[in-house]
Amino acid sequence: MVGVADVVAGRLLADDEPAFDPRPLLPGGVEVVRCAEYRYGARRATAWRRGRVLLAGDAAHTMPPFAGQGLGAGVRDAWALGALLARGDVDRYEPLRSPHARAMTRLSLFLGAVLETGSVPGAAARDVLLRKAFRAPVLGPWLTRGGPRSTASGVLDL
Ligand SMILES: Cc1cc2nc3c(=O)[nH]c(=O)nc-3n(C[C@H](O)[C@H](O)[C@H](O)COP(=O)(O)OP(=O)(O)OC[C@H]3O[C@@H](n4cnc5c(N)ncnc54)[C@H](O)[C@@H]3O)c2cc1C
């Protein structure tokens, strides 16, 4: 039951921008049981704390999905917040977590720009470069481990 509803594909195709039409790629007889439109953006709350109210996860920061770090960032927030609350040191929460959330947001935006390039030659060059990068001796294993995602998360150093 996985697929993209005709109604959604139709709406995408009705947009002014040239849209990707997934229907030819779907196996015949697919029954779509649910579909939802997903919009994303990069936003950040101006303050993560006001008095006894603390923000974590998407309430504090949203990011595009390209790095797969949205949920991970929220889990890291919760982990850090739990530890800091237990120590009575909650003022450290935003300074501790905010730089990492910003870095992941920047990474997501960068990956989105790379993945969603509208240029056919650009996409071809990207694919060649990425294949080479993943096969390179030091760079390849680092990228496979998560590349820039493996930088300090503001959690492990608690
Ligand atoms: C299509 C898609 C793909 C994604 N892929 C990834 C991925 O691969 N990797 C990754 O790490 N992240 C991914 N994310 C992001 C991830 O899902 C979110 O970052 C994460 O779910 C945020 O969790 P959260 O608890 O902060 O917020 P939410 O999951 O939004 O939870 C907030 C909850 O609060 C409830 N709520 C809202 N208002 C009220 C109210 N007034 N009273 C009571 N309850 C309320 C909502 O109903 C909701 O249940 C993806 C997101 C989408 C949409």
Characterization of the model:
- The chain is mainly α.
- It has two domains: 37 residues, no CATH class; 109 residues, FAD/NAD(P)-binding domain.
- Helix content is 46%, strand content 5%.
- It is built from five helices and four strands, in the order H-E-E-E-E-H-H-H-H.
- Strand 2 and strand 3 form a beta hairpin.
- 16% of the residues are buried.
- Flavin-adenine dinucleotide (FAD) binds next to helix 2.
Q: How many helices does DSSP assign?
A: 5
CATH topology of the largest domain: FAD/NAD(P)-binding domain
Low-confidence stretches: 1-9
Distance between the termini: 43 Å
Give Rg in angstroms. 20 Å
Order of helices and strands: HEEEEHHHH
Helix content: 40-55%
State which percent range the strand residues make up.
5-15%
Ions, cofactors, ligands: which are bound?
A: flavin-adenine dinucleotide
**Structural class category:** mainly alpha
Strand adjacency order, main sheet: 1-4
Could you state the CATH homologous superfamily of the largest domain? FAD/NAD(P)-binding domain
Cα shape = extended
Largest sheet properties: 2 strands, antiparallel
Oligomer: single chain
Q: Give the rounded overall mean pLDDT.
A: 81
CATH architectural arrangement of the largest domain: 3-Layer(bba) Sandwich
Strands, helices and their partners?
Elements: H1 6-14, E1 43-44, E2 49-50, E3 53-54, E4 61-62, H2 70-87, H3 93-115, H4 120-135, H5 139-144
Antiparallel strand pairs: 1-4, 2-3
Helix pairs in contact: 2-3
Bound molecules: flavin-adenine dinucleotide.
